[in-house]
Amino acid sequence: MNTKQIDFVLEIAHTKNFNRAAENLFISQPALTYQIKLLEDEIGFTLFERSARGAVLTPAGEQFCTTLHNIRNELKRAIEQCQNFSSHYQTNISIGLPTRSALYFLPQAIEIFERENESIFITPHFLPIFDLSPFLKGEEDILFSMEVDVKRIPDINLHAIFESRIYLITQKSDPLAQKTIINLEDLKNRTLMIGGGSPPELKAVQQRVINALNIPYFNSNDYDTTLTNIATHKGICLAPGFLNDHYNEFAWIPFNCPETVKCVLCTHASEQRESVYNFVKLLQKIYRENPNFLV
Questions:
Q1: For residue 269, which of 149, 158, 157 has the smallest C-alpha distance?
Q2: Taking the model in full, what pTM does it have?
Q3: CA-wise closest residue to 282 among 150, 130, 142
Q4: What b/e string do you get for 195-214 counting C-beta neighbours within 10 Å, with b at 16 or more?
Q5: DSSP-assigned letters across all residues of 68-113
Q6: Inter-residue contact 283 to 242 (CB < 8 Å)
Q7: What would the pLDDT profile of 207-244 be if each residue is shown by its tens digit?
Q8: What are the residues facing 239 on neighbouring strands?
């Protein structure tokens, strides 16, 4: 199926007539009929019921046309975006990260960088946490990651960005939310959520709390599920600070422990563009200048 065939199908669906559609498309009616027959043979079902009065979509054809409308609209938007890009920018740098909160100062860095480099466009891509495949396949130029997940991967460079402290997440109405720092004994008689792909540093803290206090705990599949459980008063959670979205929905209180989660920016060892490394250095500089920012 090609884009012309998409236009042919949608025009026939609109006019309900092969002859009129052919006139509007500036092709002959036999040529239009031939193209539709080719398409129907390819997709394996009939699109139109023909009669002396015109052409009516089959039920399958109606569903197919809905999808084709969406495809054509998405294609139009993609072309328009790329036309805008090509008229203003010469280079694109893509950066993958699991959530916007992972690099809180990313918008500030993009604004500064693009102001000083008007021909370069920075594109953030939000990836599932722990999904390294787009970066490893070369689809991302820069990747935010926990160091433990990438330190043994060959042919990449690691650039330290910050060390994320461990925080307790609770409802803002929880008495623990009034504390400035949480100590181990503060969690006595509470229910702790664990799992969800916790890094080794966090797992060590979780296990120490469970062993010392013998408190109940249960596994939470992922971070969003964990937040939902906190919101429904099912438990509390320990998490690295870079996950804090700063929307002020929950209380994030520092947990008194020596462990931190080292976070890095990754680039490909084969990367030659100075602009990529300049953007990494800019992010590092911003974080150095904000040492008291809660991560």
A1: 157
A2: 0.70
A3: 142
A4: ebebbebbeebbeebeeebe
A5: HHHHHHHHHHHHHHHHHHHHH-SEEEEEEESSGGGGTTHHHHHHHH
A6: no
A7: 999 999 999 999 887 888 899 999 999 999 999 999 99
A8: 167
